[in-house]
Amino acid sequence: MREFFRSKRAGFAAIACALVAGCAVGPDFRSPDAPVVRGFTPEPLPSETVSTPVAGGASQRFQDGKEIVSDWWTLYQSESLDALIRQALAESPTIAAAQARLREAEENLRARTGTVYSPTIDGDFSVTRSKSTGASYGDPSASANTFTLYNAKVSVSYTLDIFGGNRRELEALRAQVDYQRFLLEGAYLTLTSNIVTTAVKEASLRGQVSVNREIVNLLEEQLDVVAGQFDVGAVSRSDVLAQQTVLAQTRATLPPLEKELAQTRHQLSVLVGRLPGEGGIPEFNLETLELPVELPVSLPSSIVRQRPDIRASEELLHAACAEVGVATANLYPNITLTGSIGTNAVKIEDLFSHGTSIWSLGAGLLQPIFHGGELAAKRRAAVAAYDQAAAEYRSTVLQAFQNVADTLRALEADARTLRAQAEAERASRETFEITREQFRLGGVSYISLLVAQRLYQNARIELVKARADRFADTAALYQALGGGWWNRSATDKVASSTDVKQTK
């Protein structure tokens, strides 16, 4: 008989545990499958780009499946750039704001977790001064009575999560934490990429300013030659005026370039977290940057796990899926257990005396019966929100694959453009030197010299731009592939109190 009751108690305990644990209604989230595609572009890419025998003209090799280093910007071999980026990661308000949003989401999760998995316990102490008359008890002739009531009690309340609505709510909050974490990784990647591309832009503008100043010096020398030939009657006054015009026009290109260069340095200061007036930002030149030649190309199936924006969009999809479960659970009964124990006394010294204790136990069942279709409509709205999140996730994936395809094609085209611009610059330089000498000897007209000057000036400027494009598009490739955040060491993590996991 004793064994019988023992087995019964075990059965009741199992039933009680099942009621507390319950089941979670609504769909269980599953990460979307990676797109099944062989490559990022319709036609296969060459294994490497063309090379050019000029500075920054090395061939870049595409290496399928190679891992991306987390500090990819160090591949530019610039200590100044590396130091600037590390300072920005420590002082940037953009990173600080993203970290704060992540901490906020983590604390909201902790707050809700405490109420879901633990009962709510509150202590209450109150003092009430009351006056009552005999009429209160049906005896108007009785004298009034004034007294003080002291009350101390502890209350306990717990809602059974039978249908998993609370757990689905926690699931949504966890997804929001991961969403903020990947937004932080996205802010990290965007900041580092922006600093690199801004530094490259500064280097490009500095190169263009230098070229234009050299051209101005050359044109000033040429003006002296033309003026000398005018003095001896070899050329007309219009030729001198034409050379002065070209010189003035070339000088006029300098102020806009210098303005843009100054604005770029101001932008670089702000990205690092400094006021533009503070200074201390190193100068960047194309000659001080090395072009990365070994370029990793992740497998297409890996991009959805590497890109922070895709991972963030996935977490929004996860949260929307959990909200469907919350809305579904709201259609079912809700059971709440309550209890309290305490004491009442008219004198504070008697508050814990014998005979003053009070207690209560209760259970409540709330079953939605009629809400005018509100609960069903909210569930349909949650399903619609999930469908929207799914569509936005797919849009994010499509955009990510386009980014990678665009940068891969850009790098291939940049190399061919640099080769063409280098050949154009060499040819225009030789043409200008020959034409200048012929003009000095009176062998060609001034018009021929003017055309050669224009072509040489444009070719040098375009060569600087072509070199800068390779640096900038290389940074864009690392950004498009996710930046290697998953390979960051523990000491370099920017994320947070909780490590970012590449897989769930």
What does this structure look like?
There is one protein chain. The chain has helices at residues 2-21, 79-91, 93-117, 165-231, 237-252, 254-272, 300-306, 308-329, 374-440, 446-480, and strands at 61-64, 120-132, 145-160, 294-297, 334-345, 357-366. By secondary structure, the chain is an alpha+beta fold. It has a 4-stranded antiparallel beta sheet. The protein has a two-stranded parallel sheet with strand order 1-4. Helix 3 runs antiparallel to helix 4 (165-231) and helix 4 packs antiparallel against helix 8. It has 10 helices and 6 strands; from the N terminus they run H-E-H-H-E-E-H-H-H-E-H-H-E-E-H-H. The chain is 58% helix and 12% strand.
Q: How widely separated are the two ends?
A: 50 Å
Please indicate the percent range of residues in DSSP E strands (runs of 2 or more).
5-15%
Major beta sheet summary: 4 strands, antiparallel
- What sort of overall outline do the alpha carbons produce when their principal axes are compared? elongated
The spatial strand order of the largest sheet comes to 2-3-5-6
The tally of beta strands, per DSSP, is 6
Structural class: alpha+beta
Mean pLDDT: 87
Q: What is the string of helix and strand elements?
A: HEHHEEHHHEHHEEHH
Low-pLDDT runs: 1-21, 494-504
Roughly how many Å is the radius of gyration?
A: 38 Å
> Helical proportion?
55-70%
Number of helical segments with 4 or more residues: 10
Q: How is the secondary structure organized here?
A:
Layout: H1 2-21, E1 61-64, H2 79-91, H3 93-117, E2 120-132, E3 145-160, H4 165-231, H5 237-252, H6 254-272, E4 294-297, H7 300-306, H8 308-329, E5 334-345, E6 357-366, H9 374-440, H10 446-480
Parallel strand pairs: 1-4
Antiparallel strand pairs: 2-3, 3-5, 5-6
Helix pairs in contact: 2-4, 3-4, 4-5, 4-6, 4-8, 4-10, 8-9, 9-10
